[in-house]
Amino acid sequence: MMAKPADKNIQSGNSRVKVTLYGQVNRAIRFANTGDNTEITSVDNDGSSSRLGVRAVGKANPNLTIGALHELEWQENARSGTDQGSTGTARVRARHVDLWLDHKNFGKLSMGHGSMAGDASGLYELTGVSFVYGFAGANGTDGTKADAAVKVITGGAITPTDGSPAAEDTTGIESTMNVREKDRGYRPFNFFGFRQNRIRYDTPSLMGARLSASYGEAKTWSVGLSYAGAPPGVKNFSALFAAGYRKNDDDTTAWAVSGGIKHSSGFNVSGHFDSDGKVAEGDPKNSQWGVSAGWSGKVNDSGGMSIGIGYNRSTDGLEATAQQYWVAVVQKIDAAAADVYAGISYDSGSVTHTVSEAEAIAQDRAGTGTPAGGDLVLPLATEATPCYRAGTNASATTPFVRAAKGDTCEIDRDGVINFVAGVRLKF
After folding, report:
1. Which residues of 308-338 are buried (b: 16+ CB within 10 A; e: fewer)?
2. Nearest Cα to 46, choosing from 87, 84, 74?
3. How high is the pLDDT of residue 407?
4. Share of the chain above pLDDT 70, in %
């Protein structure tokens, strides 16, 4: 006796159009430790956020299809917006509201809210685990902020940013002040979720390569190039590559490139670079680069496994740098269309200010030269914390000298450990 087929309770309202309901839920537990603060949080792992979408496709003729897409991002406690002090965040927003015409010979024309031509051009990689560890952003990998330790030479009564004055010290002894809530990363995010209301054109694939161009709101335009496949005549190797460029209405620009190579054995290497191009006068020029290596294959009957390890480094283009080390593993559960994963990252950074000639002259005019006054060296450009320099010609009445051109003042971020374990269920 044959089994009765399952009832189809959901169907298209128009038999000439194929409608697909799809989405995913991606939840994780994050353990974050900043040295003196530990927190365990349930988060939406928005390296690949929870979402729900509807796709409709109809055929006008054998060569031309007309399609539409509406996709919502549905998040509760998004990882990137959750730090040690937050009580939770919720967000529902449209990721894509798009309509397109796709011709086999002439390419694809898209209209609506969706990806600009360069979207994700700095994120292509082959480890298969990038959604686990996340990227160091304006507030670090996860929105968590690290404490910073500032080493100073005290002299006189010093008042740190937390308002508690340090003890008076006229002997030039080194001490430490804590400065909290310092950003740990400077990723540009020029091509991370680069979506707008725009018009976009993609060429047909030519041996795996496609060109794209788009024009969007606020007179933003972008171009991109992507490639996926095996180069002609090359055996046992495949490649993935993307590059993008964008120009905004204020004449600022940005560009990014990423990609990798994979061997038939499953071993792979990848790299990326993402940078501001032309920036507004007075703005910093953020950039980030990274490398990764990994392996993908099957070690059990549940599904494929991917393992990756990598390093990222970012800078604000002025005085600050940050670095991140990470490792992650993903196990697919094919029977349940799910990914089970875990990863750990460690990131830290520093801000180093070098005294300019103009700053040294300004300090020379302002200092008192007495132990009680302290002879402050100019503070960091982005901080309120003073640095001091011990004088080589110190005396009982003048134990410090004023800042000289080339003197430096440094803030070191406390290292932050983030451990994440979760499940991504696709439907």
Report:
1. bbbebbbbbbbbbbbbbebbbbbbbeeeeeb
2. 74
3. 67
4. 70
Q: Are 66 and 60 in contact (CB under 8 A)?
A: yes
User: What SS3 state is found at 131?
Assistant: helix
User: Burial letters for 23-55: b for 16+ Cβ neighbours within 10 Å, e otherwise?
Assistant: ebbbebebebbbeebeeebebbbbbbbbbbbeb
Both tokens of 294, joined, read: 């990994």
Average pLDDT, the chain: 77
Name the token pair of 234: 């090359």
Residues recorded for the chain: 427
The identity of residue 194, as a single letter, is: F
Half-sphere exposure of 221 (CA within 13 A, CB side): 6
8 Å CB contact between 121 and 256: yes
Task: Name which of 71, 98, 57 is nearest 197 in CA terms.
Answer: 98
Task: Give the helix, strand, coil percentages of the chain, each rounded to 5.
Answer: 5, 55, 40
> What residue has token string 């360069």?
118
- Cα of 345 vs its chain's centroid, Å: 13
- What is the fold of 17-144+185-352+413-426? Porin (2.40.160)
For the chain, the domains span 17-144+185-352+413-426
